[in-house]
Give the backbone structure.
Amino acid sequence: MSGLFDFTDYGALLGLVQNSLIAAALLGVVGGLIGVFVQMRDMQFAVHGISELSFAGAAAALLLGVNVALGSVLGSLLAGALIGLLGVRARDRNSLIGVLMPFGLGLGVLFLALYEGRAANKFGLLTGQIVSVDTVQLGWLVSVSVVVLVGLAVVWRPLTFVSADPEVAAARGVPVGVLSVVFTVLLALAVSLAVQVVGALLVLSLLVTPAAAALRVTASPVLAPLLSAGFALTASVGGILLALGGSIPISPFVTTISFAIYLVCRVVAWRRTRRGWGGRRPAGAETARPVPAAVP
Amino acid sequence: MLSARGAAMAFGDRVLWSGLDLDVAPGEFLAVLGANGAGKSTFLKAALGQQRLTAGELLVAGRPPGRGSRAAGYVPQQKSMDAATPLRARDLVALGIDGHRWGLGRRRADHRRAVADALAAVGATDYADAPVGLLSGGEQQRVRIAQALATDPQLLLCDEPLLSLDLGHQRAVSAVIDRRRREHGTAVVFVTHEINPVLDLVDRVLYIANGQHRLGTPAEVMNSATLSELYRTPVDVVTVRGRIVVVGTPDHASGSARHHPDDHQHHDHPALRTTARSGR
């Protein structure tokens, strides 16, 4: 265990990773907030699909010697556009993602194999490279985050309506199609952000797990995004702080914290549902009730 | 509240209905009946401004139906909502008032009051703070009616709101709709494949089949002669213990107690259809 953690010189290390901490905190907030809509719209698989193409874009940029962040954003947007245009129905969408994902991953691996630079750069795109966020990259990350956060703030309420209740939202004149496109673009940007920080393989730990955990314990439309962002922030920043004291990359810490929060939320939800949540019990006398919190 | 003049709807060559003249008065309960795919839901879509008429005119509260018009409230079919939806019953109703507005902004006090009133009016105050994913089918439909009524519309458009509810909840939900139209003069257009749960409330029936329609009181429309003419095949309408049973329609549109769309498919089955016919 002594080889795993060493917290001497911790203060000095902290100064070195200041940029990374800012990037992680931003990603936590963005990922946690957008994650709530990912859950509501059932797009967890899309997140994974977009992240693989984002990885391919970043790998292509690395090979061509251009801005990796830009490559990652372009890959994400391309994936988002394909999924948005071709996968209108959920079933089409999932099979499309299943087709795109290995193709993107394969392309990415090809680009990395052709790349002759530092090996750490290659590995970082898949499993995270947050400890090496430099000032140029931070500028990108901050701008993309601001775009996503402002975009989310503008569409928040109608997007909630459409995501939870598409038929009535359409009847009330909410532009369902426009919002779907806007959301896919915002999601693609958020994913590209996450790919650069935690790597393509671990995007789900910040865009899906925290929101899934939050929605287990609250149904309040105000509390759910706040909790989700808080959980994602805890996982991303906490992951870096723990990783600093050891020789292991940050991703296992991020994913483990994220998963632990999820487990705690499930236990809390289980206990609450058993006692009756808001007067509701899952196995009540009424018949037409769907069983909540069904184990998949 | 809802008026149609020579209204027609067709998809290509297939005419769903045409030459429809209709005036729904305040407080009137109009049931729209017909086989699956006959054009019942399309009629609602036209009233919501989501589908353009092929010909004629349709007015909601004297105006062409605009998307998102506050003159009409909409109650969809019950469907189970995801348990992980971050909305409580109260929030779902509130979205009916301001869900189309951009931005975040806090809810205004008068909105919150309107939400509470709407929930109280349908008897849903007890579960106002329950997550929507944990509501039963009947509770969910009451909340949906509260959502549709929160903007105080003059017209309530319901698309199979009782589908998949058990008998007790069907009664409770239709009673809520009935009280609303009596106390507030809200006109109700109620699309259903099953007239019996609302038979006592219905003022007039619009029956759509084979690109044609008949409009009149339940007695005028729900009889063997009218439906036989409409379906162009012998159809028997019998009343058993106060329930209307229709036998012999290709789709068996308003037969005995059936609450699930799945059940419908059984009646489309050629073998079953033959049995039904030869049994007469």
Observations:
- Confidence is low (pLDDT under 50) at residues 283-296 of chain A.
